[in-house]
């Protein structure tokens, strides 16, 4: 669940004049916390709920007093029990985040509900989140939609975005891309980066609107400039492929790098490919290896295969067949036919592993289901060097390799039995 935000203290919050209260609020908003504390403290002792709420906020933020979540909870509770919606909301936040009290989603739900029923929009949004995530209540998408809608209609951008997601995914409501677009747009126009990114996706896929690559670029750019990694990556793809913008590899590199530096694996892989091929940047095998490695370590199978190829050829790293085999194996385990074929070649040539024609054949046979590899041709070459008994063993091994997550185990078992 996303971290929740405390309701602030605003002069507009005060609806009833009270000696000292207006002065305290003015002092707080001016940053004179010492004077604010002096004005609020006597009022809290008289049971003034708004002053109690204000003092809770000062303890929560550590303004004018040492930060003390337990004290914040105490004062929020006093005000909440007198019906102050913002205090109820903030008390819900404290329970949700486990600040000043043990984390307790059921208590958070209770206080959010009290505030939400008074029309507190942030509480309505948080109720929607908790129903959506099943925190403190059984997961209930219909209830999530109901509360997101109440908050969205009050202009809460995150609620508008989440309501768009519910319509897009058909959770709690019938799937409706036009409605999803409508709510994403409302949130996006308020600057919500996730909504801007999703609008770009909707235009790219033609969901709820005609496909429009110029609009895709427009919305991806807005989100990317706010640091959204997926938008940065996708904007890089648009520049790389010349969709919605003139093809521009330098711009593609720029946006892939921004996403890659945030740890986005697919962007790291793409950046590796760009450096390997010298598009938009001078060809640099060392940089290619660096970015492939980052993506490969996050499990991107094609990056693992390409890193294996770099080790096999000694591009950007010293030639190392054992490392090549290791990375080919990781990619082959994930079902990448090209890596299965490459690993088969290593076994056929005895590079990085003991030469073994049966294992090579089994891997070529496994890869041959993908016509873009040379698996089928390599299978025929291997058969020409094998006995009928070896071919039979290779076919059995290939069947074992095809089982989920069993490729390396199958090879190891075969090699052990062959000794």
UniProtKB/TrEMBL annotation:
Signal sequence, renumbered to the chain: 1-19
Keyword Signal: yes
Keywords recorded for this protein, A-Z: Signal
InterPro entries: Sel1-like, Sel1_AlgK, TPR-like_helical_dom_sf
Record SMART domains: SEL1
The protein's name: Tetratricopeptide repeat protein
